[in-house]
Structure formats: C-alpha cells, structure tokens
Amino acid sequence: MDRELHHHGLLRRGGPFVAIVVALIALLATPALALPAETEWTVSPASRIITYGQGVILNGTLLSDSVPVAGLWVDFAQATTEAGSFEVMYKVTAPAGPYATGTYSIAVLPLQTMYYQFRWPGDADYLYSNSDVIPVQVKPSLGKPSCPASVKKGKKFTVKGTVKPGQGAGPAVKIKSYRQKGNGAWVGYKTYGSKVSGTNYSASIKITRTGKFKFKATTAASTEFAANTTAYSKVLTVKK
To answer: Could you tell me the CATH number of the domain that includes residue 58?
Structure first.
C-alpha cells in the first residue's frame, strides 16, 4: 500500500497534497477580520426657519446598533441648495465617557438659506455615514411699515420701514395696502413696489378714495430667502 501511495506522490515530503492540507489548517486557525460596524445619524432640528441675524444650534447624533458613538471627529458640511455640492466647513467632536450621548453640536449663523449635513468618513471600527440634509431657511428681517395718521385724497405720502439684508443683498420689498369695509373687516386694496436704500425701504403712494387704510411690508420666497410679511401698520385716514 505504501508503495502505491508513494507511487502516486501522496506521501512525498513537501508534495502538493501536504502543502494544501497545511494551508487549509492555517486558514482555519486564523481569526476572521472584523468588519467596521454600521452607523447612522439622527438630527435635530430636522429643519428650521429663522430671521436674518439669528443663529441656530444644529445637532447630529451618531449611533451604531442604537448605541451612541462619541469622541470622534466628524465633518460638518454646507451647501446653498439641497442638491448642491456640499463643502466641509468644520470638524466637530462630542465628549466621550460613560455618559456619552453621541451628539455632535454646532452653532450656525447663515446669511441666507443654507443646507447642512453631518458626515462621518469612517475608520477601521465604524463604517462611514451621512446625516439627512438639514435645511435652515432665512427670512429677511423686515420692520413693520410706518405711515402718516391722515392724508388728503390724491395726495402722495410715504410708507417706510427697515429691511436686512438691505440694498444689493436682500430681496425686493412690496407694500400691500388694506381698506376697512363698512362692517369693520380689512380687505386687500392694492400692492405697491418700494425702493430699498441701505437697510431702509420706502414707497411713495397716492390713494384716490377716502377711508381707512393699513399697510404690510412683504418679501417673496426665493432660493436665497424665505418669504416674510410684517404686522399691520397704524391706521391711515384718507380724507376729502
């Protein structure tokens, strides 16, 4: 029998059969390499509308199998559109330790509507993941308009107020007028354009009918700014 096995080369020292067996044993004895654990984000707030000049704190919590992951340095990115090209602006960390929440926080002061995202690039322990995009819409800071207490019919007068950002950076401002009906209700009358100079808006208006009027300043929604509307001005009485 040994002669037969020797004849087929199965018992030869250093033969291919022995090499394969040794390789299999070594493979089975080697511990499997651990893959990075999957991660996911939760964010708060999910979105926000603020007024120009205000800030907001954004929070992103990094989890792995529902367990907070803290003590890492994650990327914080921003873009001017939700589908735009995100640029990493800062690296943010969160305290580690027995009471770690895995919440990474950053304060932002956008000058126009912006979109933000927390990003973990990944390492040997934790797989990369991006948070949902957080839209922060910015309304212009729009002051309630002022007007005279009374004016004669057909005579020009000025309605004015403040707006930030102003000339060259902010949106156009329109003036909406409202007339009081006999039953006391206020209904829309006319809309007027205004001129923005610096951080002030003004409109030269002429009303050709008598009655009581109020005004609101408004801005339209755009990719840069959310819409805004002020409260009513004081009452203007148009006399004969």
So the answer is: 2.60.40.10
Q: Kindly give the confidence (pLDDT) of every residue in the chain, 240 residues in length, as a single tens digit, with 9 standing for 90 and above.
A: 444 434 444 334 445 544 444 444 544 454 556 899 999 999 999 999 999 999 999 999 999 999 999 999 999 999 999 998 999 999 999 999 999 999 999 999 999 999 999 999 999 999 999 999 999 999 999 999 999 999 999 999 999 999 999 999 999 999 999 999 999 999 999 999 999 999 999 999 999 999 999 999 999 999 999 999 999 999 999 999
**Taking the complete model, does pTM exceed 0.85, yes or no?**
no
3-state secondary structure of 35: coil
Residue 17 in any domain: the answer is: no
Q: Residue 210 is part of which domain span? A: 141-239
Domain total of the chain: 2
- For residue 109, give the nearest of 186, 53, 49, 61 by alpha carbon: 53
- The C-alpha angle with vertex 58 and arms to 102 and 167, in degrees rounded to 5, equals 160
